[in-house]
Specification:
This protein is mostly helical. It contains six helices and no strands. Helices cover 76% and strands 0% of the residues. The longest helix is centred in the C-terminal third of the chain and has 31 residues. InterPro entries: DUF420.
Length: 190
Amino acid sequence: MNLTDKLFLKLVWIVTAVVLIVVVALKLVPPPATVPSFLYVLPHLIGGINATCAVLLVLSLIFVRRKNIQAHKVTNIITFVLSAIFLVFYILFHLYVKDTKFGDVDHDGILSATEAAAVGAIRYVYYFILLTHILLAIVVLPLILVSFYRGLNMQIEKHRKIVRWSYPVWLYVAVSGVLVYLMISPYYNF
């Protein structure tokens, strides 16, 4: 491994740690007093970005299997940029909106026994999808960064080895992100 690769790997771990710290801090920091009006469109953009990334990831696989490396690269660059935009929107949204309770029909921030009974066992499905989405989103960030770096630098064998792991996890995170959005969006309090 050359010096550039070593430096990049250190950068990957620094970026991963910073993102994780910021996301955890979002839960601890109180929301600002005023909420910008554009904020309420962010969850819909986030859901749309996740859906677009899922489609682009499938297209990327199709392109590489057809040996259309240029289309594969362009698709992955677009997906990577969209994922970065997603992260910015996610952080911005959750800076202002801390929690939305699944099943909170009256939008009072409290899940009553009646509301919990109304959504029933689907709540557990939602929380399973959400939990796996969150955990795998943490795991996939360094995998994506390393995969992206190796692909751009035409380290084909190293790229293939890591993509065997990063691709299915990234695809799951994108698809589960859409599912989480579709399931929680009726309960947003705006």
